[in-house]
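Internal QA ticket QA-208
Title: Verify multi-chain structure generation after dependency bump
Assignee: T.L.

Test input:
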Amino acid sequence: MEILNEMRLMFLSKSENEGFSRVTAAAFVSSLDPTVSELVEVKTAVSEAVSNAVIHGYDKTVGIITLEMRLFSDYSVEITVTDCGKGIADIEKAREPLFTTKSEEERSGMGFTVMESFMDTLEVESEPGKGTRVFMKKRLHPNHT
Amino acid sequence: MEILFEEQNDTLMILLRGELDHHNSIAGRERLTLRLTQKNYRKIVFNLEGLTFMDSSGISFIAHGYKLTAPFGTVTYVYTTNERYLKMLNLANMRELSTILSHGKELVRLWKF
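Actual output:
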């Protein structure tokens, strides 16, 4: 399986960059000619991962978020979102639907559930005090095949 | 994101336009709070048809409106034909589909909390 293209984008953990990162991800993956539905699912998953890094990873502090994407010849896309924030103490708990540590800020606790639902693969690695890495993969069914 | 309010008798329609993510929901939440704490309504309806994007921040935005008004007997509805938004509402366990209305050629799904 050949890598067709790859990119790395680094940006500050400002909430306005949630929109910037998902639009960039959509533009990058569009060379694989995804369906409209697939494109929106990729945008939503990236938005969730980046929002998590902004809200939970850096939690009112500013740090760097890295978005990496790789496109493959079998029409699959790999997406990695990494932060160097405070990390997640209990990943299993964090992945449960409706679980949130920010109920006072009225977060829905649905971020990982939405990522899992819209992508084929979701892996989360984290170390408290070091940061979090979210890896997602999705096989596309392009319009022209 | 733009929020428009339309009041019809004892119902408040909340029309959302543009992109609803964590960033955009911050200012929107303040406007929503201000409006919902001015008066009691029998029903509030979040109309998502004007949204071009929504992630799970939309769920917490709607839940915010619900939590503010439910103690006063207000019933919250969500109006959308978007399959992805419906999927997210479903994943969040936001109660059952209460009504399916025929609206033009589309099936309009009205969710009730």
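Spot checks passed. Confidence is low (pLDDT under 50) at residues 97-107 of chain B.
Status: verified.
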